[in-house]
Amino acid sequence: MGAPAHGERIERLTLSGLQDLGKVRDVARVLLPGCAEDDVIDSVLVADELCTLACEYGNLPAGVCLIRSFDRPSLRVAVSAPHLSLPCSPSASRTSRSVLESCATDWGIGNEGERMTLWAHVRVRLAETEDAFPVPRAPVG
């Protein structure tokens, strides 16, 4: 694992196919110790969705960068691949968009030359103590 720099911990992975999704999920979890379980789940879902899109619609291998910010508690995920395009099917794009809009604070698409980057930012909280009441999540939809 990478060393913290400027209040951040950065992990870079290479995504060669769907068989690498487990490793991405594991790294996302490892970067979020002591965080609220629902935020960890949201982070893993977002990382998984972005990587799945790269596997299905990009030329692999893809680069995956996970950045855990401690100053402003969050996880940023960026997946970059050559000639990456988004799904044309309304149902596939609607599913991806739903995951990103439900779980990520912000997300987007950028490109540099022939490489396209899908990125998302997930805000995380520290886990509540046993004595505290959980904060209700806003309903989706």
TrEMBL record:
Gene3D superfamilies: Histidine kinase-like ATPase, C-terminal domain. InterPro entries: HATPase_C_sf. It comes from the Bacteria. Keywords: ATP-binding, Nucleotide-binding. GO terms for molecular function: ATP binding. This is ATP-binding protein. It comes from Amycolatopsis acidicola. The lineage of its organism: Bacteria, Bacillati, Actinomycetota, Actinomycetes, Pseudonocardiales.
